[in-house]
User: Fold this.
Amino acid sequence: MTTARQPGRPAGSASVRKGERATSLRYRMMALARTRENVISLGRGDPDLDTPAGIIEGGLDRFAGLATDPVRGLLSLREGIARRYASERGVTIDPATEIAITNGAQEGLFLAMLALVDPGDRVACQDPRYSSYDQAIGIAGGDIVPIPTGGDRPFHLGADDLRTHARGAKVLVFVNPSNPTGSCVGPEGVRGLASAARELGLVVLADEIYEDIVFGEAPFLSFLAADSSRERTVVLSGFSKAYAMTGFRVGYLIGPPAFIDAVEALKSTTSGPCPAFSQYTALAALDARPDPRQAYLGVYRRRRRALIDGFTRLGIPHGPHGGGLFMWADVSRFGMDAETFCYRLLDEAGVLMFPGNSFGDRWRSWVRVSLLAPEAQIREAMDRIGGFVDTIDGPVHVNPDVTSGS
Ligand SMILES: Cc1ncc(COP(=O)(O)O)c(C=O)c1O
Assistant:
């Protein structure tokens, strides 16, 4: 069976295919991993931790039946999210007009692109990036303008990067903390980006799905709180990562009323409202005491330490890891491309991680490693990697531009 493909949108369909190739590479590796015994998976990005039982029970208690909710989501959940932004981010949001609940942030990402991007619009995105953006931008008919990071400069997106690369773009996608690099732009950096975006007249889609997983001292600053232009700012976030609730599929978009209206119109003809039970569970998550986010952060912090210790011991340079669920490591010294490295590592050592080129063509000597296995397994994975690299006789070249982490 052949499937239809965006007729008349040649630029877009190229990035759709590119995104599909990147995503399918990761899915192929996961399928292969499932055929093996005793694999330690540091691949996929969905939290392995359990959703707290109290949150699920709280969802059941609140669940009021299968009434048809507004397509933009239960008002009580939108009000809860607005209260959260007021208390934690110092931002006022009108729950009636400025929030839409989506089926995971993933649907939000696609709806946002369809609502913001017309065929031929330029959308600036960091390279490397979460490859779903290639697909979403391509489906909307937009053209990606890559903003290179890494190499002889940091992985953090900076205001000057926008001035150099994003001029003439309509939209900027800013994922903070970053998937795949784990870099996290701090408050000053976010303010600088907001001011550059204002100067350049960019609409900003700030994907803040990892906002609660931040390891540095500085508190996370939402783009909404950065003196950004509110009528040009959209924030995407959700419950999957912070509350280990991926399976419930609850994300949300915050943006100006006209944007939320456009999202609702698209959503009403594609998926309708997010399932009511999931929304009630998200509401229970907002009220959960003790707040599980702190405990999860502690678990991720210990896993991150185990990864950093392992990479340091093995002499594998790794990117700065300020937040999110991933680390980004340079395997160029082993004399093979990242895809070969990952396939061989899976085959010979039973450790799954993803090659960097599934996040952008340039990243053929990098790998993305997740924090999503128990600490003991991460330590064992590092031992297995050590055993594997000992068998390799590759040229040793350590990239001096990459921090050795801390
Ligand atoms: C940057 C980014 N945005 C959005 C999503 C989608 O998250 P959700 O599980 O809420 O659909 C992910 C998932 O990995 C992600 O990494």
